[in-house]
Amino acid sequence: MVLVVGLGNPGRTYERTRHNVGFMVVDALAEEWRTVFHPGRGEFWLAECSLNQRDVILLKPTTFMNESGIAVAEAVGQFACTPDEILAVCDDFQLPLGTLRLRPQGSDGGHNGLASVIYHLQTDAFPRLRCGIGTPATPADGSAKAGFVLEPFTADELPDVRDMVLRARDACTSTITDGLSLAMSRFNTPRERSDS
């Protein structure tokens, strides 16, 4: 069993915002694996499939970002997942746009969604994939960053965002099929920009 959790905010208002990269990635996985999301028995939407003879559940909490851990804890209880069977996918304004960082565990790094998951699971020992959304326009001030992550990506950023989401999709797939160590070696490298 693998539980891939995309962190984001529900509703059309937030669909294309920087804070919803986690949702974008699990949506891309659902499309690739030809499965669809439906309401779960809790505060989340889920989609189910099998990959390399492993059951995979894609999860989108409906609690809003800062309470994501409530939904994750509900799902963990229902599906009897262990922390190492979770892969949380989220945005990270401290990483440059397009950069991916897979880690087996760690702190919340200032991300409220991860902080909530850590709090409700009472452990930080679960894998996570951080997707960089940082740009030169990222505010230095903490309160301004809250507004920044809830803004839509600019038109100039969208090609990089689409590329990052597809690579994040592939990183999730590789984590499940090849293992976390190999996936980290493949995807934890800065993306080379193309001038073409």
What does the model show?
The chain is an alpha/beta fold. The protein has a single domain (2-187), classed as Peptidyl-tRNA hydrolase (Rossmann fold, 3-Layer(aba) Sandwich). The protein is 36% helix and 23% strand. The chain contains six helices and seven strands, in the order E-H-E-E-E-H-E-E-H-E-H-H-H. The protein has helices at 21-32, 68-79, 112-121, 142-149, 158-178, 180-187, and strands spanning 2-6, 38-39, 44-51, 54-61, 86-96, 100-103, 128-134. Strands 2-3-4-1-5-7-6 form a seven-stranded mixed β-sheet, with helices on both faces. Strand 2 (38-39) and strand 3 (44-51) form a beta hairpin. Helix 1 crosses helix 5, helix 2 packs across helix 3 (112-121) and helix 5 runs antiparallel to helix 6 (180-187). The mean pLDDT is 93.
Strand and helix map with partners:
Elements lengths: L1 E5 L14 H12 L5 E2 L4 E8 L2 E8 L6 H12 L6 E11 L3 E4 L8 H10 L6 E7 L7 H8 L8 H21 L1 H8 L9
Parallel strand pairs: 1-4, 1-5, 5-7
Antiparallel strand pairs: 2-3, 3-4, 6-7
Tally of distinct domains: 1
Query: If strands are numbered along the chain, what order do they take across the biggest sheet?
Result: 2-3-4-1-5-7-6
In percent, how helical is the residue content?
25-40%
- For the record, the CATH class is Alpha Beta
The named CATH superfamily: Peptidyl-tRNA hydrolase
Q: What's the gyration radius in Å?
A: 15 Å
Class computed from helices, strands and strand pairing: alpha/beta
Instruction: Provide mean pLDDT, rounded.
Output: 93
Specify the CATH architecture.
Answer: 3-Layer(aba) Sandwich
Count the helices. How many? 6
What is the CATH topology assignment?
A: Rossmann fold
Summarize the main sheet.
Answer: 7 strands, mixed
- For the terminal residues, how far apart are their CA atoms? 41 Å
**Low-confidence sequence ranges:** none
| Shape, principal axes of CA atoms | globular
Strand fraction equals 15-25%
Count of strand segments: 7
- Topology order in helix (H) and strand (E) letters: EHEEEHEEHEHHH
